[in-house]
């Protein structure tokens, strides 16, 4: 698993987040919820169930040139073709990685995030450290996630807002010719669709 950027201040919470924490504490004290079970549910939606939607979009883009064209023209509508719609997925745009360019997404003002294709945003995405450093020193942040890019590869940082949210289309790994969409989707990680990671190589799948 990629190392998360250092020095993130997870104590910086909005009023809503503070209220949620207070409610969680109260319910835990009364024995209504198990914190470990709640953490497991959040982890599932944050890293597995939610990002599987986006992985299907990426796999379709890799295998269907016509679908990729529709994504470029109207990502919101093209994503909806696969059944992925909903809150914070209304104003979508894709950005495509290429041999000479790597894209990375941040929300510098708050934590705008495409829930319909990526699920719940990870804690580090909302942290002040990521929100500032992704813009000022993106190459260093990527290195902390374990992503080392060639010095001549350009890094473009995209700032999500309430008006537009981004989905990174990572480069398709070599050695996947002839793979179907379901197999390709297994190579697509949440971080690769934010730009803080790369798609997996076929040998990394295991099993």
Which strand order spans the largest sheet, edge to edge or round the barrel? 1-4
Q: Identify the CATH homologous superfamily.
A: Nitrile hydratase alpha /Thiocyanate hydrolase gamma
The averaged pLDDT comes out at 84
CATH topology type = Nitrile Hydratase, Chain A
CATH architecture: Alpha-Beta Complex
Helix-strand topology string: HHHHEEHHHHEEHH
Number of helices: 10
| CATH class type | Alpha Beta
Q: What gyration radius follows from the Cα positions, in whole Å?
A: 18 Å
What structural category do the secondary elements indicate?
A: mainly alpha
Bin the helical content.
40-55%
- Strand proportion, as a percent range, falls in 5-15%
The low-confidence runs, each spanning 5 or more residues with pLDDT under 50, are: 1-13
Count of individual domains = 1
Strand and helix map with partners:
Layout lengths: L14 H15 L5 H29 L1 H9 L1 H7 L10 E5 L4 E6 L8 H4 L4 H4 L1 H9 L1 H7 L9 E6 L5 E5 L11 H5 L4 H5 L13
Parallel strand pairs: 1-4, 2-3
Helix pairs in contact: 2-3, 3-4, 7-8
Provide a short characterization of the protein structure.
The radius of gyration is 18 Å and the shape is globular. With 207 residues, it is mainly alpha-helical.
Task: Describe the overall structure.
The protein is mainly alpha-helical. The chain has one domain (51-201): Nitrile hydratase alpha /Thiocyanate hydrolase gamma (Nitrile Hydratase, Chain A, Alpha-Beta Complex). The chain is 45% helix and 11% strand. It is built from ten helices and four strands, in the order H-H-H-H-E-E-H-H-H-H-E-E-H-H. Helix 2 crosses helix 3, helix 3 (65-73) packs across helix 4 (75-81) and helix 7 (128-136) packs across helix 8. Mean pLDDT is 84; it is low at 1-13.
